[in-house]
Here is the input.
Amino acid sequence: MNVTDPMLPPVRGLVDRAGRLVEADQRLMDLNLRAGGGIGQPVAIPQIATLARLAQRLGILVSRGVVAADGDDDVELWVRAEPEARGVHLMITGWRSRAAWYPEAMQGEREGDFLRSAADWSWETDSALRVTFLSISAGTKHGFDAAAMLGQPLTRLFALGEDQEGSFPILGGLAMHQRFDGQSATLRATGRPLRLSATPRTDAGGAFAGFIGAAHMIDDVTDGAPVAAHRPEPEEVPEDLTDAFAARLDQALRSPLGRIIANADSINAQSEGPLRQDYADYAADIASAGRHLMGLVDDLVDLQAIERPDFVVAKEPVDLADVARRAAGLLGVRASEAQVRIDKPAPQDMLPATGEFRRALQVLVNLIGNAVRYSPREGMVWIRTERENGVAAVIVADQGKGIAPADQARIFEKFERVDPREPGGSGLGLYIARRLARAMGGDVTVDSAPGQGARFVFTLPYRD
Here is the structure.
């Protein structure tokens, strides 16, 4: 075999829309010829043919390492397939020969083939868990728009559930970059239950590049028994399920999420050396998603705590003006990144009240954080303090699009948001903030109108 030098210049080719190799540099032409193909015929190298079809179907550039058979040996290739008007343009580098065996870096591709063979349909993601591939018939058969899901977070397609031990197998797989099985999920579009399995995929440098996954529908049978015997109807779910779930969150999620965030931040900072910018951006997306999940963990732990019948807060002297300044300081970086200014109370302002410092700070971080999130660029968030009739109040006002009167009660309910399509939190923040305020003898209220921003008021008993 004469294709042995990975330092040779890139080899180019063109696959037309019918999957035929119509143009090829000599090395690609020779390799394809040895595989039984020829110019004007379908690509005879299965791995390259698959990537060309994938790039054409998705309409995006696909770049992946493959191992192709070449006589008694194998050749490692890095194939870049980019769709264009005439078909798919190929640029191939690497060309490293080796004995015919599969190293660990390529094991995910082979395991993925076994997963897909037993699945109802298959899916793939990139390293940021954005969907890059769905089986052609999956959306039509199961009631969702497959094309619209491409490029979306995996959680936009699936609502993930915990297993019998209160864990999420996918999080373990993501943290350790290893295979996971038995992830309970439902299709968001239809609510149909299914199980997910996946094996990790690596790039040419051995770095985690996403998952090759399988979806197993469980509408009819699960482990040979009717689903009804294993899946209780919603009204049969115990009322303390949320408590039991939240009680295991720290152990099940916080540690792996912490590792995910730390590693992603390290990759994004390129602390181990230069990295392709798109990979660094993927790492930033992973860290951002990890922090979002960590915030959800915090919210659910708080939810479990405040809904316990024995939940109490401390009765201690606090300065609400000082708490507001501290909360604004904690959100300074986020506001700067969003190009939003925060006008906080002056250093000499004081507003004595009775409550628990930590919980009051939590309430104001939530209110000010929401104001920053929904403010336009170059917008302003105002924080003011007032005292009236034995009540100490902090007002947080923004210049966002406002909240319709019909939605103003709903936003304080669990898991409710005005527009779930907008990026934001879990839908628990305002519910928790109001519960905490009322536990301290105060309240959180809102005054708003569409197009006129929102004005949230946090009150506590005034302290003489």
About this structure: The chain has 14 helices and 20 strands. The longest helix spans residues 277-306. The radius of gyration is 27 Å. Residues 232-309 form one domain.
